[in-house]
Design brief:
Helix content: over 70%
Strand content: under 5%
Structural class: mainly alpha
């Protein structure tokens, strides 16, 4: 079940790349980020207000941790992504996103002193090759896709880094804080942080033409961002990571650029090529390699089951 939750979350975020790239052509990325989290906070606090109030005493004890995670996951990750997508392609953004499993491994190694198995390393390398094969369109020797870096590339690099930090440090969230309440409070904190940022942006550049935002495409796109990447993805991802850990779970972020490519084929009528199929196979092999428990853990699990029986 955790693997299904992580896969669904990653696919919803893959849609975020496509929808976000379309929306930033019409909406200021700061306006988009603030609107996304304000509406998400209103929705989730309405749905989970009772759970939030019940768990608030526990949350207050670890409020600094929750604020830190919200800054990384709800504020920095999408904001830097949307700003970057104004100047670079979703293709480049996907390349940088593919580095997050390796970053999580490094964070876990140096901050949490976690032992990284050869299988985890091999799985990350294999799925990274699959992602690079996807974004290079089957021509990994051709370096043109990495050329001409601009400010958008650096913004999206920051987005990948903030996501890696969020996933790695998610382990410090107290287990007593359940998923629904945690996501609701995180969304509220994201909105609270982004509202002053939005105010400064409006003071600096003036009020945008709000009438241009009130069209069907923008409203539908924003609704997708609120329901899927902002609500369901974070909820499913947090549950999946809590179940199997950040080192094994973060590999599923490689499904984000893969699903984004598939959504482009389905909804933007991008032609399907053989490199899509090859990269999908390689990515899935890497994920399977990381997802398999080690022989030691498997023997331990079998031994416990025999004792229970």
């Amino acid at each position: 079940m955790p693997y299904l939750l992580l896969s669904l979350a990653a696919c919803f975020w893959g849609g975020n790349y496509v929808i976000g790239h379309l929306l930033v052509a019409e909406i200021n990325p700061i306006v988009l980020s603030a609107a996304r989290w304000v509406f998400t906070a209103l929705l989730l606090m309405t749905l989970y207000f009772r759970q939030v109030t019940e768990q608030w005493p526990v949350m207050k004890k670890s409020f600094g941790t929750i604020v830190f995670l919200a800054l990384c996951g709800q504020v920095l990750f999408p904001l830097t992504l949307y700003i970057g997508l104004q100047y670079t392609t979703s293709l480049n953004a996907a390349i940088y996103m593919s580095t997050t499993p390796a970053l999580v491994l490094l964070i876990n190694k140096f901050f949490f002193k976690e032992r990284i198995s050869a299988r985890n390393i091999a799985g990350v390398i294999l799925s990274t090759v699959g992602v690079i094969w996807l974004v290079s369109r089957g021509d990994m020797i051709n370096a043109r896709v990495f050329a001409h870096l601009n400010q958008g590339d650096f913004w999206t690099m920051g987005s990948a880094l903030s996501w890696a930090v969020y996933c790695a440090f998610l382990r410090i969230k107290p287990r007593e804080v359940k998923g629904n309440a945690f996501v609701a409070v995180s969304a509220l904190l994201g909105a609270i942080v982004l509202i002053p940022v939005l105010a400064l942006e409006l003071i600096r550049n003036g009020m945008p033409g709000w009438n241009s935002y009130a069209n069907t495409g923008v409203v539908t796109g924003l609704a997708y961002l609120v329901i899927f990447p902002s609500w369901l993805s974070y909820l499913l991802w947090n549950k999946g990571i809590s179940a199997i850990g950040a080192t094994r779970g973060e590999i599923y972020s490689h499904l984000i650029p893969l699903s984004g490519g598939l959504f482009s084929v389905m909804f933007l009528h991008v032609a399907l090529h053989s490199y899509h199929l090859v990269s999908a196979l390689v990515i899935m092999c890497g994920i399977a390699l990381c997802s398999r428990p080690s022989a030691k853990k498997a023997r331990s699990s079998t031994w416990r089951e025999k004792r229970v029986n």
